[in-house]
Design a protein that fits this description.
This protein is of the alpha/beta class and about 550 residues long. It folds into three domains: about 160 residues, ANL, N-terminal domain (Rossmann fold), CATH 3.40.50.12780; about 180 residues, Rossmann fold (3-Layer(aba) Sandwich), CATH 3.40.50.12780; about 100 residues, ANL, C-terminal domain (GMP Synthetase, Chain A, domain 3, 2-Layer Sandwich). The protein has 17 helices and 27 strands. A nine-stranded mixed sheet has the order 2-1-11-10-12-13-14-15-16, sandwiched between helices.
Length: about 550
């Protein structure tokens, strides 16, 4: 028998039939097909797709002329402005890696990132120049610093622009370069395109590295998961520094969409953009939904089209979903991590669920969902045996991912990378259950399970019960050390404006929905701390709860 495989003989990979995937091709295609279509709206500024591509090429050319290329890091601390969109394309055009810095970080953390990333060029919005100046004093690296001076920065801004701290001006740097720059291929779709640091709540943050293949595939997957048609209009309420804006800076080129830039997330600005520009899609944490539905009447604007709101984190309470629907928004629930390029799971809604009663429908909405179109495998597994747990909606295991939208690994941290990929799966650290129909539902972070008297209590389950109270706006439940029980649930509760509650009333409410041992023993009324992307900073609250346990 001839062992030669005819399908692998004389059918070699070549330039004609194989090109490395890259999200840079999305912009190039959009500029070819829709050169005059508006790609970017920023205040009074408008950029067509032709201009968007030209500006990105100029940035790439300018960087290449000063020696930036493959293996180099270009760091940016920018708001949601055209410069940030141009950086997402112009930087990787040179083969370099884009490092987007969280604009809410302090100087010490920024300095750590600059050193760890070995930053060669740093582009800074003048809004953030004071903190960056402090970071540069602490950092060992001495990058070329370029100031971005936003001409649309409002005169009535809460803070004036900071001083120039660089040796070059961004617009002058870009404008002086030619538009005929030919990007690097990339040579391999495994080439790195972006660096994003985790929150670093336990020690120094880890640098998550993305590749061109994953970023390209996320473009297609985001279009499908978000239900984007031709020429969507996307409002930038999600920070572009967060997982590269869930890869949406690259996504919109797939469908020739329009980016509507937004420096600060404010209710009036969001409603104005929706009404004036016909915004069809936006992303954000649940706090952004609260801003929209709780906005003062004078800040709201009427619009006559349905707007898709993609949200991650915990599932929104039914009252919030109802408020969003009444206001004209369709909510799509997503879940993912920095290590999965942002969203990798979507609550793919089935039309038959619309007919369910409120309770069962809410139960369906509470589930994180099924794998993204670009993710190959999603499972809930026993981390010790590496076997899937029963798909019964009850058995808890660790959520694990496998596929092309999982990070390359952690920069300069082989040990953490190997641990994250142990057994051939990415270990998320999240605990969840798999339902019989294949839908995932989170139960907790592994470190957030409360063990009280030998019983496991899911903080998410307690939080869900608390969110059902109409006076509660935001909540987080963590473990408080207890001499008798080991740990007990401690709830940090932020009330809606003008509402009042007592600790006894909160506990009584929970007892109508939960077993008594799951109910909070302690209730603290406060402003619940959140990150710049709306995630609750539980590590701060765990510290507070530990102090309470020592009293």
């Amino acid at each position: 028998m001839d062992s030669t495989n005819a399908y692998e003989t004389g059918l070699d990979r070549n330039a004609a039939n194989y090109q490395p995937l890259t999200p840079l091709a999305h912009l190039e295609r959009a500029a070819l097909i829709h050169p005059d279509h508006t790609a970017i709206i920023h205040g009074r500024q408008r950029f067509s797709y032709r201009e968007f591509l030209e500006r990105s090429r100029q940035l790439g050319n300018a960087l290449a002329e000063i020696g930036i290329g493959k293996g180099d890091t270009v760091s940016v601390m920018l708001s949601n402005t055209p410069a940030m969109l141009e950086a997402h394309h112009g930087v990787p055009m040179t083969g370099a890696v884009l490092h987007s810095i969280n604009t809410r970080l302090d100087a010490a953390v920024i300095a750590f990132q600059l050193d760890h990333a070995a930053t060669r060029v740093l582009i800074v919005d003048r809004e953030f120049s004071p903190v960056m100046a402090e970071a540069l004093k602490l950092a060992t690296v001495k990058p070329l610093v370029i100031d971005f001076d936003d001409s649309e920065y409002p005169d009535d801004a809460p803070l004036p622009k900071g001083p120039r701290i660089g040796t070059l001006d961004f617009d002058a740097f870009v404008s002086a370069a030619g538009t005929d720059f030919e990007r690097s291929a990339p040579d391999d779709e495994w080439d790195s395109i972006a660096l994003n640091y985790t929150s670093g709540t336990t020690g120094n943050p880890k640098g998550v590295v993305y590749h061109h293949r994953g970023a390209a595939m996320m473009g297609y997957a985001n279009v499908i998961a978000s239900g984007m048609g031709r020429h969507p209009v996307y409002l930038w309420t999600l920070p572009m520094f967060h997982c590269n804006g869930w890869c949406f800076p690259w996504t919109l080129g797939v469908v020739g969409g329009t980016h509507v830039c937004l420096r600060w997330v404010r209710a009036r600005a969001m409603y104005d953009a929706i009404a004036d520009h016909g915004v069809t899609h936006l992303c954000g944490a649940p706090i952004v939904m609260s801003l929209l539905i709780d906005a003062a009447e004078e800040d709201k604007r009427a619009f006559d089209h349905l707007v898709t709101f993609n949200t991650a984190a915990a599932p929104p309470p039914e009252s919030v979903l109802a408020g969003m629907a009444e206001a004209g928004f369709q909510v799509v629930h997503l879940y993912g991590l920095t290590e999965t390029y942002g969203p990798a799971v979507v609550n793919e809604w089935k039309t038959g669920w619309d007919a369910l009663e409120s309770g069962p429908r809410t139960t369906m909405k509470a589930r994180q969902g099924v794998r993204y179109p670009a993710l190959e495998n999603l499972s809930v597994m026993d981390p010790e045996t590496m076997q899937p747990v029963l798909a019964d909606g009850q058995t808890i295991g660790e959520v694990m991912f496998r596929g092309n939208i999982v990070m390359k690994g952690y920069l300069k941290n082989r040990e953490a990378t190997e641990e994250a990929f142990r057994g051939g799966w990415f270990h998320s650290g999240d605990l969840g259950v798999m339902h019989p129909d294949g839908y995932l539902q989170l139960k907790d972070r592994s470190k957030d399970i409360i063990i009280s008297g030998g019983e496991n209590i899911s903080s998410i389950e307690v939080e869900d019960a608390l969110y059902k109270h109409p006076a509660i706006q935001s909540v987080a439940v963590v473990a408080r050390p207890d001499d008798k029980w080991g740990e007990t649930p401690c709830a940090f509760v932020q009330l809606k404006p003008g509402r009042t509650l007592t600790e006894a009333e909160v506990i009584a409410h929970c007892r109508t929905l939960l077993a008594r041992f799951k109910c909070p023993r302690t209730v603290i009324f406060c402003e619940v701390p959140k990150t710049s992307t709306g995630k609750i900073q539980k590590f701060l609250l765990r510290d507070e709860a530990r102090k309470l346990g020592q009293e």
